[in-house]
Amino acid sequence: MTVIPLGVPRRLLEFTLDGEPVRAPEGSTILDACRAAGKDVPTLCEGDTLTPKNACRVCVVEVEGARTLVPACSRKAEPGMEVRTDTERARHSRKIVLELLASSVDLSTTPRVSEWIKEYEAKPDRFGPDAARLNEEPKIDNALYVRDYDKCILCYKCVDACGDQWQNTFAISVAGRGFDARIAVEHDAPLTDSACVYCGNCIEVCPTGALSFKSEFDMRAAGTWEESAQTETTTVCAYCGVGCNLTLHVQDNEIVKVTSPHDNPVTHGNLCIKGRFGYQHVQNRD
User: Which of 96, 161, 183, 262 could hold 201 in an S-S bridge, CB 3.0 to 4.6 Å?
Assistant: First the structure.
């Protein structure tokens, strides 16, 4: 019989969330507590497999005694703190952030952002067309994935996933400053000339679709991409004996992309090039 260690139990903290007493495990963030309580706090740059970067600032909330709004994704819950998530100040801040982001980049493939823009009555168009941060064609320099930086919000998640938090390849980083800041490989070379190992872990964490499977990009361009018609099946990768879990996204009886469960203890959402992109042989009908 296999004995699974339970580990050291975490102490529960008590604090106030929107006037209601709540309890959360020690070490939890305010965002963790909000989700456990069923409160919908928007966020773009937060990822459950990465250390919070506090980049997008959409998840800000009010904490009693704090001079400024605090990012819920990284602020740890503390005993006795009083948190308010839906105040006029927090809502106004989210509205401005959404307006600035949506006016400067293309958020058309960002999940839920149109819902939040409507909820907070944001009006990105008021900044005019000159607010656009970039205006360039998608980079299609390999057969596996596409980089469309017109959709990039500079959340740094891809840099962290490629760097010391997961892959340790360090193929990409932030180049430039201000409006010229962008994600790039060394010397802005083609991806095929970079240190990229095509694990696709940057695609896994990208919240806006700035990085996407070539298959998804082509289907969106053709108007055939339909997530509601896709099924997801989780299986085990057959390439080696590590035991990575794969989630196959299937549309019209064809695998259109592969992800990995973030709660899997082997992969934590990460894969290698074979697991992420090596699925073509499955649907070879010849």
Answer: 161
Catalogue the E-assigned strands of 142-273: 145-147, 172-175, 182-185, 211-213, 231-236, 245-251, 254-259
Is the full-model pTM beyond 0.85?
Answer: yes
Are 76 and 128 within one domain?
A: yes
**Residue 125 phi, psi (nearest 5):** -65, -15
Q: Which helix (H) or strand (E) holds 60?
A: strand 60-63
Q: For residue 24, which of 70, 83, 77, 75 has the smallest C-alpha distance? A: 77
Pick from 139, 131, 79: nearest CA to 107: 131
- Which residues 6+ apart lie within 8 Å of 204 measured at CB? 49, 161, 259, 260, 269, 270, 271
DSSP state for residue 227 in the 8-state scheme: G
Q: What is the distance between the alpha carbons of residues 220 and 154, in angstroms, rounded to a whole number?
A: 23
Query: How confident is the model over 13-43, as pLDDT tens digits?
Result: 899 999 999 999 998 999 999 999 999 999 9
169 within some domain: yes
Give the list of residues 6+ apart from residue 44 with CB closer than 8 angstroms, or none. 56, 58, 101, 110, 113, 153, 155, 207, 208
| End-of-domain residue from the set 132, 148, 164 | 132
Q: What phi and psi values does residue 250 have, to the nearest 5 degrees?
A: -120, 130
Q: Are 273 and 143 part of one and the same domain?
A: yes
Start-end of H helices in 11-75: 30-36
- What amino acid is encoded at 80 in this protein? G
